[in-house]
Amino acid sequence: xxxxxxxxxxxxxxxxxxxxxxxxxxxxxxxxxxxxxxxxxxxxxxxxxxxxxxxxxxxxxxxxxxxxxxxxxxxxxxxxxxxxxxxxxxxxxxxxxxxxxxxxxxxxxxxxxxxxxxxxxxxxxxxxxxxxxxxxxxxxxxxxxxxxxxxxxxxxxxxxxxxxxxxxxxxxxxxxxxxxxxxxxxxxxxxxxxxxxxxxxxxxxxxxxxxxxxxxxxxxxxxxxxxxxxxxxxxxxxxxxxxxxxxxxxxxxxxxxxxxxxxxxxxxxxxxxxxxxxxxxxxx
Length: 284
Ligand SMILES: NC(=O)c1ccc[n+]([C@@H]2O[C@H](COP(=O)([O-])OP(=O)(O)OC[C@H]3O[C@@H](n4cnc5c(N)ncnc54)[C@H](OP(=O)(O)O)[C@@H]3O)[C@@H](O)[C@H]2O)c1
What we know:
By secondary structure, the chain is of the alpha/beta class. It is 45% helix and 16% strand.
């Protein structure tokens, strides 16, 4: 049995859908049965519980051999991931597929990639088989700017002239599902990007082309954006951590295009144009 955490989220739900499409049985540990109703209807077994609660995790892990470990970002992320890995090992799990990030490297300078790297190291030292899913910035993050694009034909972000090879969560879920159900993925780190390295001005051009109306990217001062983030993300640690990540993109430290998706899945990754078309109602 495969256990998924984070199955109601952006990439976890795509991982679940990809497993269902492959006819692979899986279980999800979810907080809300209501939110997971579609997953259940599609054939995913549910255990209702909280990933912070050891008893919920133990219950969900019964009979599980492969675990998809996806934890939202918080100052407790590393400690929670270690706790779940320990419980998984004790329950007889053999392979952990961890949602990490492409920025998670040994000398990562900002808190989220640092936590991912430390969790990766913990898993690598655990004796369990592992696969690290290391995506770039998600295209789905752009849905956070959908209202502004729809109403003002512009979006404001603090990325300056920085570029990113953003990836669609559907592709990331497809790779995670392959790592969970296919063979030969042990000991691999999969750096997943979309097909193009784009500045946010170029992202705006893609929106203009697909929407048929001029859309502009407004680079905002990182300090001013941080004040906005503090209002959206009530947790100060999270606001600081996201600001630090965005600063890295603005400073041009974002990685290059990889061929990982095509190599593993045998098809091209989803383009930004297709992502926009597939969410056209949100943007127009
Ligand atoms: N966004 C990016 O550009 C990006 C890029 C690279 C890597 N990442 C990494 O991707 C991860 C986030 O993935 P995502 O965006 O797909 O997630 P997401 O959409 O934020 O969803 C988070 C998931 O975790 C679940 N969850 C949260 N707290 C829980 C708890 N206490 N018990 C049980 N479940 C809980 C949520 O359940 P509910 O539905 O109940 O809330 C939801 O299913 C992070 O580790 C991040 O660092 C993100």
